Amino acid sequence: MHDVSAVSEGKPTPDLLSLVLALRPADQAEGLEPTPTWWGRAAHALLLRVLREADANLAAALHDEEGPRPFTVSSLLGPMPEGRLAPDGSYTLRLTALCREVAERLLQATQDGPLAAGRTVELDYRPFRVTAATWQDGQHRWAGATTYAELAAARLASGPPVPRQIVLQFTSPTTFKSQERHMPIPLPELVFGSLWERWNAFAPIAFPPEVRRYAAECLAVGRFHLSSRAVPMKEGGMRVGGVGQITYVSLNYDRYWMSVMHTLAAYALYAGVGAGTTMGLGQCRQVKPEEAL
Length: 293
Hints:
6-stranded antiparallel sheet, alpha+beta, 12 strands, Alpha-Beta Plaits, disordered N terminus, about 290 residues
């Protein structure tokens, strides 16, 4: 079990948290029952239940809030042979926070609350046992905890120029609301415009609106390995999004603006990209150029 104090020992309390939960089915009979094809709504409900137990007022405010919300969730990841849970399978679920209030409550829930190792959580009325909760950098590629100031300073402070390439990995369907339609292709202005909106909604220091213009006019798609994937929605609807990897290249390199773009790209680990991130869509992380496909 991790100690919350270890996260902030010598560091500020995190504003940003990417919490990776390791889960196992708690009911061996679950392997006999068909499972949902998408667990995003169940993960959303779990996060709100956890917050409600810690702070009912905060949970209610987040449930009713309009506009960007300070959290994201993933779908359940792991083996599902023939559309069923493997009774002895290992599964992963990710919950993220974009503000200190949510981050603190999620971290506390891993200590003596519903997300602590050994506790049982429910997803779509199915019980899972929590076997581990990870957020430290280096322990899982999707885990992390930091502040807005640290994230920005690492890229905007004086030092070597940032690369002219940015590589992003989209691991769940990513789509954007654009001109009253859903666009499943991660164009630069849509990706960085989405990240800019979330950053300015929650960060203590805002980035200027020219972020969108720089992304649209000065970033181009270099390489991509993308495919489309459909996600079931309410009332029988489907949402199509892109998954895979894409490389953006600066056509007109400017050190300041590319530092901002790299900051927003790093922010994608926590904020997700595009529409539906609180229901499992738009899970994204930055990949080092040397690790690109």
